[in-house]
Amino acid sequence: MLFCLTANHRNTEFDVLDRISRAADSTGADVVAAHDFVRGAVVLATCNRFETYLELDDPVTGGVALAREAVLEAVADSTGTDAAALRDSAVVLSGDDVVRHLFAVSSGLESMVVGEEEISGQVQRALRSARDAGTSSTELEQAFQRAARATREVRARADLAAAGRSLARLALDLADSRVTDWETIPVLLVGTGRYARTTIAALHARGAANVRVYSATGRAAAFAAKYGIRAESDLRDAIAAADIVVTSTARYTVGPADIPDDRPRLVIDLGLPRNVEPAVGELPGIDLLDLELIGRHAALAELGAGAHEVVGSAVATFNAERAAAPAIVAWRTHVQAILDRELSRVRPEEERAAAALRHLAGVLSHGPTMRAREFAAAGRLDEFERALETVFGLEVASALTIVDDDRAAG
């Protein structure tokens, strides 16, 4: 069974999201290590959400409640008192609701800026991080991979007139009223992280020609060469020369000591955790625009008509594929057993005959596989399973028991 605890810009204070996002790297591994009923975990921490996706043993008595406490305990170990705020605000989902939510998140339908472009990449990076940490699982893999396909379907089929936007673009939209000439105003990009590429594209679209980049990780020179801007080696000197500073880094924060003077300067913080200390906004001449303030201006209108319908269709397809999986496995196992018997009779020198048999088995398997999915989507899977039993004497449950026993013995 799938489970999700989601804290996001709609239900949790930004300061809480800022702090608990620091627990993202350890939460999944901590939950999996501490609880036997958790098969896998993927943690998604973006600029406006902290979500923990789990696969739970099914059935587990009180599994959803146990999973909720497991996540809260892991967060508490890392952030202390913020777990209490998370307990009061976060929303818990289970089963099909998790799939629908994940698909909507990946498609940008749940973002502060509806249609946000970066989120689908962040979802897939969360899955890769779980793989690297050894906390992914079969059902989570399937759901996250299908989320990527659902995102492509939404973008291809829905009315995306409102899409193509991002937090970086929205932040620069808010800055437009303060800029008389984007071509000449000096802009500093701090970091080469998650929003850096989008920020560069948005700046170039506005005609910004005086853009520089600073990075403490040594990536500034390569980033600058790629995008035709100038690299800076000293943060304080770079800020001194800039009228607009945009931060996008997960490595460090900009503090009051990094601000060299009190002349007017707009600082845009796109980071979570924060890239700019709140005290910077209290300095003379500094106007600080962070994610909390950006979120108040984000349009909450949905994408064009049809986006949620596309997500719903993708969820239905995913559920049908999962429902049909046991029958498909039973059928393919049956065909493979027949193929193995026939191949045992083929002499080693008759490889062409063996290849032909393998091809024939694949062709024979394909049609019933597709029919199983079609019948599952139509709510008629029981008819397909009865047909397997009537025509081939194949009982799905019994066949899968044999497969599981063989795997255990192996």
Explain the overall architecture:
The protein has 410 residues and is of the alpha/beta class. The protein folds into 3 domains: 2-157, Beta Polymerase, domain 2 (2-Layer Sandwich), CATH 3.30.460.30; 167-297, Rossmann fold (3-Layer(aba) Sandwich); 317-359 and 378-409, no CATH class. Helix content is 53%, strand content 13%. The protein has helices at 14-20, 24-34, 63-79, 82-89, 96-106, 119-133, 138-157, 167-175, 196-205, 220-227, 235-240, 291-297, 307-343, 351-377, 381-392, 396-409; strands at 2-8, 38-46, 49-56, 91-94, 187-190, 211-214, 230-232, 244-247, 265-269, 286-289. Strands 7-6-5-8-9-10 form a 6-stranded parallel beta sheet. Helix 13 runs parallel beside helix 15 (381-392) and helix 13 crosses helix 16 (396-409). The chain is elongated.
Notable traits:
410 residues; alpha/beta; Beta Polymerase, domain 2; Rossmann fold; 3 domains; six-stranded parallel sheet; elongated; disordered C terminus
Task: Describe the protein's topology.
Elements: E1 2-8, H1 14-20, H2 24-34, E2 38-46, E3 49-56, H3 63-79, H4 82-89, E4 91-94, H5 96-106, H6 119-133, H7 138-157, H8 167-175, E5 187-190, H9 196-205, E6 211-214, H10 220-227, E7 230-232, H11 235-240, E8 244-247, E9 265-269, E10 286-289, H12 291-297, H13 307-343, H14 351-377, H15 381-392, H16 396-409
Parallel strand pairs: 5-6, 5-8, 6-7, 8-9, 9-10
Antiparallel strand pairs: 1-3, 1-4, 2-3
Helix pairs in contact: 2-3, 3-4, 5-7, 5-13, 6-7, 7-13, 13-14, 13-15, 13-16, 14-15
